[in-house]
């Protein structure tokens, strides 16, 4: 178990600044996702932690020891690449044994650890196959086994599920999570998929344009993003300009009562974020409900388990997501209701 | 239940015919020009040359005379020596260059053009350059004399026209290193750097990464490029003719001397030499490819 810290890390490639400055604390045994759009610098950050890139400025610490200039071979880290990077000319077991062999581990120990790890990743029956004879999920498990057999202090994964189909991706997510929890290994993985990050990670570091935008638990990031950019990246549909005054938000479609305890706000301009699944769709006006807004259903998207409604409210469009236990017709008059503590207000920190 | 009878669809038949039609020009060139010439060469080497008034077909005496003479084996040794040493040196230099080119360094784009220059210059120019640079009285000997390392350019050690063949090897290496580099560079770009990085992270040092990870992956490029340059070197004529050490010559030069002899019936002996070169080169290259195929099967490439 290793604690990883990045202190004022900056990376420049010539005149191009890939990472302007990042500070990050990753606790021992924690699973952290580096999340962001393509080209934001998340893979560069991961490669710097692995030692494949040297930071231009700043420090990388493993258990408070500066490893910024320690060569890759001496860091004892593990990395699972997006395209697996398996050695195509070696069988599964030779791939898995590679790390131990080049480190000069005794043959008996290699054999013992090979059996152990092949059991863990359930690849015993494929041990004599070559990578080209494996499916994507099997290749991914070989890549994980090849890394884990060396007992790395930090496990890193670069978009580990990007090349898998939807069903396999779900299975591999659970597999990685179970394995990480069982081995209690500090794990950092890169992804551009917010669902993947939320499902897998203890904490998510969102990186935009080479800067750390927010570092928080998945639910906090989803419910309480600290900027519109993050809210938008996390898939928020309903973000509206608002004038905040005395604990109320005045928007184009009506006034909303806010919960000052869960979301302390100051008077002035801001944006309100209404998560689509937090909005209740009522077919009759309910005086007992809070923050009721009248509207008309203008669109409906059926996803099987859930259904999305587009509701027109005083010229603004509100997206409502609910379980598909009922179907509301397009054109029907409805009332939207949202509880004050489910409304999140984003204001400039200045 | 009766098995349904399947017949080839007319469209499929048409497509197959069209494919053969497209292949026809290449097949014709290969069959008539290459195959025809080969058959004629073999027949001539076996005594079939009625246009010279010789027709003793099938007559193995030309081969017997050639293979029975001690000079033939010396010539073969020289031919293989020049071909092998220059192929190996070009391979080592080309591999280093290709590995360097996939990394980032200042003025890389300029260097990427520079290293290809010998590819565009003919062999004869390379031979002339070797004479100008490496000969006694050449640039190098004059520089040595100028800085006082030798008293006179004529004291410069003999590099050209010896059976060590440094001049021949230098020209081959100069011309073929860029070819090997070009081939391996393309292969390395296709392979990418991820497997090397993965090996490094797993604890491998540079030598382990090269020999256990990179080399097996660029082997197809190594085999194809060395195969081409070795085949060329074994049959090349100009460089050993101009820069070689004289008798015993390499086999292509021996063949040329037979063809150029006033006694035109010796052309049959020359043809036996050419067929011998073909047989030896084919044997070596076939064994090389067979060994490589065996290795490929061992690493799961079918």
From TrEMBL, chain A:
Residue ranges occupied by any ABC transporter domain in the UniProt entry: 4-234
Bilayer-crossing regions: none
Highest rank taxon of the organism: Bacteria
GO cellular component: ATP-binding cassette (ABC) transporter complex
Matching PROSITE patterns: ABC_TRANSPORTER_1, ABC_TRANSPORTER_2
InterPro entries in UniProt: AAA+_ATPase, ABC_SmlMolc_Importer, ABC_transporter-like_ATP-bd, ABC_transporter-like_CS, Mo/tungstate-bd_C_term_dom, P-loop_NTPase, Transp-assoc_OB_typ2
Pfam families on file: ABC_tran (PF00005), TOBE_2 (PF08402)
GO MF annotations in UniProt: ABC-type transporter activity; ATP binding; ATP hydrolysis activity
Entry keyword annotation includes Transport: yes
Alphabetically ordered keywords of this record: ATP-binding, Nucleotide-binding, Transport
Keyword ATP-binding attached: yes
Recorded family membership: Belongs to the ABC transporter superfamily.
Protein name: Putative spermidine/putrescine transport system ATP-binding protein
TrEMBL record, chain B:
Originating species: Yoonia ponticola
Domain of life: Bacteria
Presence of keyword Plastid: no
Subcellular location per the Swiss-Prot or TrEMBL entry: Cell membrane
Assigned GO CC terms: plasma membrane
Topology in the lipid bilayer: Multi-pass membrane protein
Family: Belongs to the binding-protein-dependent transport system permease family.
Pfam families hit by this protein: BPD_transp_1
Protein name as it appears in the record: Putative spermidine/putrescine transport system permease protein
Membrane-crossing segments per the record: 20-43, 80-102, 123-144, 164-188, 209-232, 268-291
Keywords on record: Membrane, Transmembrane, Transmembrane helix, Transport
Chief subcellular location: membrane
One GO BP: transmembrane transport
Key word Plastid present: no
Domain ABC transmembrane type-1 intervals: 76-290
């Amino acid at each position: 178990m290793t604690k990883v810290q990045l202190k004022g890390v900056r990376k420049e490639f010539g005149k191009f600044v890939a990472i302007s400055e990042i500070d990050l604390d990753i606790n021992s045994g924690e699973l952290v996702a580096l999340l962001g759009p393509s080209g934001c610098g998340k893979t560069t950050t991961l490669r710097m932690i692995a030692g494949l890139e040297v930071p231009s400025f700043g420090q990388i610490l493993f258990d408070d020891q500066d490893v910024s200039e320690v060569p890759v071979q001496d860091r004892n880290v593990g990395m699972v690449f997006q395209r697996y990077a398996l050695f195509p000319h070696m069988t599964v077991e030779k791939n898995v044994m590679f790390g131990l062999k080049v480190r000069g581990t005794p043959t008996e120990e290699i054999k013992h650890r090979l059996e152990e790890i092949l059991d863990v990743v359930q690849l015993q029956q494929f041990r004599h196959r070559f990578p080209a004879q494996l499916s994507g999920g099997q290749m991914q498990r070989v890549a994980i086994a090849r890394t884990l057999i060396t007992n790395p202090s930090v496990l890193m994964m670069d978009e580990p599920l990007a090349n898998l189909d939807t069903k396999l991706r779900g299975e591999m997510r659970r597999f990685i999570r179970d394995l990480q929890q069982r081995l209690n290994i500090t794990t950092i993985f890169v992804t551009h998929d917010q669902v993947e990050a939320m499902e897998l990670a203890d904490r998510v570091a969102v990186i935009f344009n080479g800067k750390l935008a927010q570092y928080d638990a998945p639910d906090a990031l989803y419910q309480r993003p600290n900027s519109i950019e993050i809210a938008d990246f996390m898939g928020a549909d309903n973000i509206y300009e608002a004038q905040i005054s005395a604990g109320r938000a005045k928007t184009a479609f009506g006034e909303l009562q806010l919960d000052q305890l869960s979301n302390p706000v100051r008077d002035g301009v801001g944006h309100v974020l209404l998560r689509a699944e937090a909005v209740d769709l009522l077919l009759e006006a309910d005086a007992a409900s809070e923050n009721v807004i009248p509207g008309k259903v203008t669109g409906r998207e059926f996803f099987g388990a859930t259904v999305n409604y587009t509701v027109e409210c005083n010229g603004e469009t509100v997206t409502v997501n609910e379980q598909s236990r009922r179907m509301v017709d397009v054109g029907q008059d409805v009332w939207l209701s949202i509880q004050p503590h489910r409304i999140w207000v984003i204001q400039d920190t200045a | 239940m009766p098995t349904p009878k399947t017949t080839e669809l007319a469209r499929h038949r048409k497509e197959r015919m069209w494919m053969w039609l497209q292949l026809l020009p290449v097949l014709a060139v290969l069959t008539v020009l290459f195959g025809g010439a080969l058959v004629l060469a073999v027949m001539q080497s076996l005594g079939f040359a009625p246009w010279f008034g010789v027709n003793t077909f099938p007559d193995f005496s030309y081969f017997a005379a050639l293979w029975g003479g001690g000079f033939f084996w010396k010539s073969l040794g020289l031919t293989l020596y020049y071909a092998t040493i220059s192929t190996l040196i070009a391979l080592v230099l080309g591999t280093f260059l290709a590995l360097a080119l996939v990394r980032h360094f200042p003025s890389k784009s300029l260097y990427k053009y520079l290293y290809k220059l010998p590819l565009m210059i003919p062999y004869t120019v390379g031979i002339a350059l070797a004479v100008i640079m490496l000969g006694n009285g050449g640039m190098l000997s004059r520089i040595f004399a100028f800085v006082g390392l030798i008293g006179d350019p004529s004291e410069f050690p003999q590099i050209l026209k010896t059976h060590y063949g440094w001049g021949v090897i230098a020209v081959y290496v100069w011309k073929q290193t860029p070819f090997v580099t070009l081939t391996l560079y393309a292969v390395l770009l296709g392979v990418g750097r991820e497997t090397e990085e993965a090996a490094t992270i797993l604890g491998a040092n540079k030598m382990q990464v090269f020999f256990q990870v990179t080399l097996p992956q660029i082997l197809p490029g190594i085999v194809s490029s060395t195969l081409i340059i070795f085949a060329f070197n074994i049959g090349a004529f100009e460089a050993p003719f101009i820069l070689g050490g004289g008798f015993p010559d390499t086999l292509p030069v021996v063949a040329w001397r037979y063809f150029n002899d006033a006694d035109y019936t010796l052309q049959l002996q020359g043809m036996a030499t050419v067929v011998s070169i073909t047989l030896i080169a084919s044997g070596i290259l076939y064994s090389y490819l067979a060994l490589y195929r065996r290795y490929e099967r061992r690493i799961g490439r079918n």
